Amino acid sequence: MTRFFSLVAVAFLGLQLIQVDRASAASNRIVAVGDIHSDYKQALAVLQMAKIINSKGDWIAGQDTFVQTGDNVDRGADTINVYKLLQKLRGQASAAGGAVINLLGNHEVMNLGGDLRYVTKEDTASFGGAAARKAAWDMQSGWIGKFVYNSFNITHIQNGHTLFSHADMSVEWAEKGIDQMNAISHKALKDKLFKEPIFKTYGPVWNRDLAKEEAGGSATCEVIENIKQILGVSRMISGHTAQSSGKVLTLCGNSYIGIDVGISAYYGAKSAALEIIENRDGTQTVSAIYPSGKVILS
Questions:
Q1: Which residues constitute the signal peptide according to the record (predicted)?
Q2: What is the sign of the dihedral through the CA atoms of 217, 220, 211 and 287?
Q3: What are phi and psi of 186, to 5 degrees?
Q4: pLDDT digits (tens, 9 = 90+) for 258-275
Q5: pLDDT 10s digits, 67-80
Q6: 249-251 and 3-4: which strand pairing?
Q7: Which entry of 99, 103, 107, 114 is 20 to 30 Å from 24 by CA?
Q8: How far apart are CA 142 and CA 33, in angstroms?
């Protein structure tokens, strides 16, 4: 299958970026799911609800694209099963002409860097102990560490219209462009620099300013519009900031959508996914999917 990546950013930082399947461009349906936090049972439930997998956990979405916006680890006990599921779905989706896009969350970065403050005792035990868990997260030799390092980017634009990141984008980071952000994050991971600015409070794995409207409603919308113009997108999708309502957060005429609804049992086991249908006229229909049905947002 033909693959592509930006040579400009590679030359700039001497890195090879994660390659993204062109098959994602062939699909007219994109489904995005937020923070899973080591809850395998809830991951299965949400992905079945969104018609990404069947009851056996296998890909049934054909040429669709599934975007998971990071934070698959911590707070729960099923890290192994969650990452095995994501690995399996990447292969099955590719074989069907679809794609799975995985993004780095702050909790992936924390685990890669040995910050285990949110790891549960049950999760550690599932690996066979702390040493075995640490080995699994090693980026050079561990199966989870290698998977995350080789397959997760820090941000993604789908077919030119929708920006995805784990946490909120800022103008400063948007001005660097998608390829450069991904290259910077992977160089930092490679060099084991887990406290680089891109991984800190105002980087795209931690920032909550937009979701919390820290600058006020109208000023937040101005920032969102500015980012959209810089990156040439119609909307921004983020996880990271859990919504106690269990519903997706929409701001500024659906220009910003927050999809962390608290899927894991730790946050109340709420279920939601975001669906984007690409229409023939170049527009997109955006809906929230809940157990009660689909709600069209725009």
A1: 1-25
A2: positive
A3: -75, -35
A4: 999 999 999 999 999 999
A5: 999 999 999 999 99
A6: unpaired
A7: 107
A8: 25
